[in-house]
Design goal:
- The strands form 2 sheets. A 6-stranded mixed sheet has the order 2-1-3-5-6-4, with helices on both faces. The protein has a 6-stranded parallel sheet with strand order 9-8-7-10-11-12, with helices on both faces.
- It starts with a strand and ends with a helix.
- The protein has 275 residues and is an alpha/beta fold.
- The radius of gyration is 18 Å and the shape is globular.
- The chain folds into 2 domains: 127 residues, Leucine Dehydrogenase, chain A, domain 1 (Rossmann fold); 137 residues, Rossmann fold.
- The longest helix is centred in the C-terminal third of the chain and has 16 residues.
- The chain contains 11 helices and 12 strands.
- It binds NADPH dihydro-nicotinamide-adenine-dinucleotide phosphate.
- The site of NADPH dihydro-nicotinamide-adenine-dinucleotide phosphate has 29 residues, from helix 5, helix 6, helix 8 and helix 10.
- One of its GO terms (molecular function) is shikimate 3-dehydrogenase (NADP+) activity.
- Belongs to the shikimate dehydrogenase family.
- This is Shikimate dehydrogenase (NADP(+)).
- It catalyses: shikimate + NADP(+) = 3-dehydroshikimate + NADPH + H(+).
- It holds the Pfam family Shikimate_DH.
């Protein structure tokens, strides 16, 4: 029989690590699959997804800028996709309906708790950004036991909308970006802005970094260099980039498609070794 077909949709997408990650997982189980990249503009995305699944596709990953559209076009949404309003995974049910999932939040929490052995319970966390990724990780961090979550976004209305959607005013607060210097320090700081990817750079006061703070940039590689350097200069105990989250969100998607959870460490180590 034909190998099952998977793809990642994005724009741009050529440099995506997802094909390698999924092929690496598949090898662990002796599974043969096709996994390709599909570059679709926002105007083409919905048609491209439908064509992929009509042609026999089993599952798709979705990345920038299509995560919102992926959630909207699906027939059903998981709880995580509903809460985030975005999806990074699409699966096809036997009757052809599409289900949207969001594994980004679970990916971050797994990277922190399993790979980095962090106990998230009781932390006072600062979340920078309120875009799609921030929405995905906010609930997961709270579910994992973060005590308070302070959300700060350049556009404050979006942070307020996220806090309202979460609906836990005792644990979730929003503050203004211009006020960052007055907020004191946090023991967990998560950068979910795309400033590093876009090359804009963030101006963050060192006073945010608590003694022995844990800092995490969802971006990885060159896009995370500035944030990681800032965190270390501020005295952070650890400052990680998002490569582990990337591998873990892929593993969660793999488990949805194949019913088995891969060993992420060899794939993570081989990507890390390449810098
Ligand atoms: P979105 O476009 O949905 O959101 C971007 C966010 O960044 C918004 O909050 C935006 O603020 C903020 N932002 C952009 N530029 C600046 C700036 N110069 N200063 C301050 N804030 C800024 O993107 P996503 O949420 O999808 O992605 C965010 C990041 O997370 C990206 O770097 C992405 O690569 C990474 N990511 C990593 C994953 C992984 O597996 N490691 C998974 C998913 C995402 P505003 O609302 O004001 O525009």
């Amino acid at each position: 029989s034909q190998p099952s077909q998977f793809a990642v949709f994005g724009h741009p997408i050529a440099h995506s690590l997802s094909p390698r990650i999924h092929q690496g997982f598949a090898q662990q189980f002796g599974i043969t699959l096709e996994y390709r990249t599909i570059d679709a503009t926002p105007g083409d995305f919905a048609d491209a997804v439908r064509a992929f699944f009509i042609a026999g596709g089993t599952g798709a990953n979705v990345t920038l800028p299509h995560k919102g559209a992926a959630s909207s076009l699906a027939d059903e949404r998981s709880e995580a996709a509903t809460r985030a309003g975005t999806a990074n995974v699409l699966t096809r049910l036997p009757d052809g309906r599409l289900v949207a999932h969001n594994t980004d939040g679970a990916g971050l929490v797994r990277d922190l708790t399993e790979r980095h052995r962090v106990d998230l319970r009781g932390h006072d966390a600062l979340l920078l950004g309120a875009g799609g990724a921030a929405r995905a990780v906010a609930w997961s961090l709270l579910d994992a036991g973060v005590q308070t979550l302070t959300i700060v976004n350049r556009t404050p209305e979006t942070a307020d909308a996220l806090a309202d959607a979460i609906g836990e005013p005792a644990r979730v607060h929003t503050r203004y970006w211009d006020d960052l210097a007055n907020l004191g320090s946090y023991d967990l700081i998560v950068n979910a802005t795309s400033a590093g990817v876009l090359g804009g750079g963030l101006k963050l006061p060192m006073s945010l970094v608590g003694a022995r703070a844990l800092c995490y940039d969802l971006a990885y590689g060159a896009a995370a260099i500035d944030f990681v350097a800032w965190a270390k200069a501020g005295g952070a105990r650890y400052a990680w980039d998002g490569l582990g989250m990337l591998v873990e969100q892929a593993a969660e998607a793999f488990a949805l498609w194949h019913g088995r959870h891969p060993d992420t460490e060899p794939v993570y180590q081989s990507l890390r070794a390449e810098g």
